[in-house]
Design goal:
The chain is α/β, with parallel strands linked by helices. The protein has a five-stranded mixed β-sheet with strand order 6-3-9-8-10. A three-stranded antiparallel β-sheet has the order 5-4-7, covered by helices on one side. A hairpin with a 7-residue loop joins strand 4 and strand 5. Helix 1 crosses helix 3.
Length: 201
């Protein structure tokens, strides 16, 4: 029998995957969901598992691939990043939870200083029930690359223009939750999606 000792990067990769699995086990047993940032901070002091947040993210993807599951099935998701605004409300399908109301200023979700509702991991982990509010069935969903442009369009009242518009931004490259939210909105309403972005080659 040949025994190979792991050294350096290879050993760290396995340690990182086992750290993710241990963290995931605790999170799943508690019935909670954690962000990959929480995982990074949990192990940050040891530096033996992850040298950076990027290492942590790679280890989460490696652990998910090893088990053949999606990342969110480990109970680990990305932090809320994207924003949306429009006249609609949503909640998890079949839930008795109160509706989250959105309006032209973004609604209750708190976009961190400007308008807009944060798009959280529920858009990945749950099926959402979506309803139009106040007869404002949208004709378009406008995906805006830059948050500053999103805030400007929101402030200029674009959600009220053109027969109803939903604005959505991933604040640059969109995270999984933002992409899942966009898909859910399009599937629900069958609307045209327009993109507003710069022309970086």
């Amino acid at each position: 029998m040949v025994v190979k000792k792991l050294k350096g990067k290879g050993a760290r990769s396995y340690a990182a995957i086992f750290a993710v699995l241990a963290f995931s086990h605790r999170v799943l047993l508690s019935g909670q969901i954690a962000t990959s940032r929480e995982l990074w901070y949990h192990y940050k002091t040891s530096r033996e598992c992850f040298k950076s947040q990027a290492d942590c993210d790679r280890a989460v993807l490696d652990a998910a691939a090893l088990l053949g599951v999606a990342r969110h099935q480990l109970g680990i998701v990305g932090a809320a990043k994207g924003l949306f605004a429009g006249y609609f409300r949503f909640r998890p399908l079949g839930s008795l939870m109160a509706w989250t109301e959105c309006n032209a200023s973004g609604g209750e979700g708190g976009g961190g200083g400007g308008g807009g509702t944060l798009i959280d991991s529920r858009w990945i982990t749950e099926v959402m029930e979506i309803e139009c509010a106040g007869g404002h069935r949208p004709r378009y969903v406008v995906v805006v690359e830059k948050e500053c442009v999103f805030q400007r369009l929101l402030g200029d009242g674009l959600c009220d223009a053109a027969g109803g518009v939903v604005l959505i931004t991933g604040k640059g490259y969109p995270d999984l939750a933002t992409r899942a939210c966009l898909k859910a909105l399009v599937d629900c309403w069958g609307v045209t999606v327009l993109g507003l972005c710069d022309c970086n080659p």
